[in-house]
Amino acid sequence: RMETDCNPMELPSNTGFEEDSDYRDFEGTDVKDMRLEAEAVVNDVLFAVSNMFVSKTLPCAEDVAYINVETRERNRYCLELTEAGLRVVAYDFDQTDDRLQTPYHETVYSLLDSLSPAYREVFGNALLQRLEALKKDSQS
User: Fold this and answer.
1) pLDDT tens across 24-48, in order?
2) How far apart, in whole angstroms, are the C-alpha atoms of residue 6 and residue 26?
C-alpha cells in the first residue's frame, strides 16, 4: 500500500468526499481516503475540544489516518481512524503505542463522549441551541 503525507493544505475545502466520484477507487469499490475522512471528523467536532488536527508526522494511507486531539480538560490523545472506527493509540500527539489495546468507537462522538465530560457538555449545549433555533424557525 502506498503511504502519503498528511498535508491539510492540499485538501479541498469541501470534504463531501462521498458524493465526489474523484475519490472512489478505480474498480468502483468506493474505498474512502482516510485522510479526507479524518479532516471531516476534525471539522465536525473541533468546536467542542481545545485542539484537534490530522497528524502531519504519522503516515496517512488509504486505510488509516491519525488525528491528534486535546480535550478541554487538557488531556492529549492520538487517535487512529480506520474502517473499523476510531480508537486511542497514544496519550500524546503524534505517537502510537502498540501495547495500548483500546476499543474502537464507531463515531468520533462516542469516543470523545467517553474521554471528555467537557466535550459532552459543550456538544450537548450546541445541540440544544440548534434545536431551539429550529423550533423558532418552525414557529415563524
Assistant:
1) 444 444 445 899 999 999 999 999 9
2) 22
> Which residue shows C-alpha cell 423550533?
135
Nearest to 112 by CA among 101, 102, 123, 128: 123
pLDDT in tens, 6-28: 444 443 444 444 444 444 444 44
Residue at grid coordinates 466520484: 21
* Buried-exposed string 29-60: b where 16+ CB fall within 10 A, e elsewhere: eeebbbbbbbbbbbeebeebbbebbbbeebeb
Q: How far apart are CA 52 and CA 39, in angstroms?
A: 10
This prediction has a pTM of 0.73
What is 34-138's CATH topology?
copper amine oxidase-like fold (3.30.2280)
Helix (H, G, I), strand (E, B) or coil at 78: strand
- Residue 13: CB partners within 8 Å, gap ≥ 6? none
